[in-house]
Amino acid sequence: MRFVAFVALGLLVAGCASVTRGTTSQVQIQSEPPGAEARTSMGHTCVTPCTLQFSRKDEFTVTITKPGFHIAQVPVITRVAGAGAAGFAGNLVVGGVVGMGVDAVTGATLEHFPNPVSVTLQPVPKGQKPRTIEIVPAPPPVSAEEQVPRS
């Protein structure tokens, strides 16, 4: 009987990051000036400032347009989040291989970068046509744990 209860508990909490963080996240999109149209490569649209919901595994490009300004494009990627890694590690204690598999398939350990997506639109000088400016965000900061070489 105890074995059955233990297995049931393991299956209930399988996918610790999936349980604690969920499989979707919200990405904020901001522009200066506000009131620009934001369109993602996944088909979502909104007017800035706005917030859209995505699967944690989704990587996409945000295109921001406003009359009189150049077009801005920002790639949004995924990376392993600190909290996601902790939830994934929790699988070693509670969820086991099933939990690790659930977290890997759902992308629960991931977060979107950059979030928020924030751009300052550049005005188009008179007589010129708008052009597309790709904005590549700076790489995410390296945590203290990642800086220390492991032996």
Description:
The protein is α+β, with helices and mostly antiparallel strands and 151 residues long. The protein has one domain (7-136): Immunoglobulin-like. It has four helices and nine strands. The strands form two sheets. Strands 2, 3, 5, 6, 7 and 9 form a six-stranded mixed sheet that branches. The chain has a three-stranded mixed sheet with strand order 4-1-8, with no helix packed on it. Strand 5 and strand 6 form a beta hairpin. Helix 1 (2-12) crosses helix 3. The termini are far apart. Mean pLDDT is 77; it is low at 4-18 and 83-96.
List the helices and strands and how they pair.
Blueprint: H1 2-12, H2 16-21, E1 24-32, E2 37-40, E3 45-47, E4 50-55, E5 60-65, E6 71-80, H3 82-106, E7 110-113, E8 117-120, E9 132-134, H4 144-147
Parallel strand pairs: 1-8, 6-9
Antiparallel strand pairs: 1-4, 2-3, 2-5, 5-6, 6-7
Helix pairs in contact: 1-3
Give a brief rundown of this model:
By secondary structure, the protein is an alpha+beta fold.
Shape: elongated
Proportion of beta-strand residues: 25-35%
Order of helices and strands: HHEEEEEEHEEEH
> What is the fold named in CATH at topology level?
Immunoglobulin-like
Q: Calculate the mean pLDDT score and round it.
A: 77
Largest sheet: 6 strands, mixed
Low-confidence stretches: 4-18, 83-96
Tally of distinct domains: 1
Helix proportion: 25-40%
Structural class: alpha+beta
Features of the shown structure:
151 residues; alpha+beta; Immunoglobulin-like; 6-stranded mixed β-sheet; 3-stranded mixed β-sheet; 4 helices; 9 strands; 30% helix
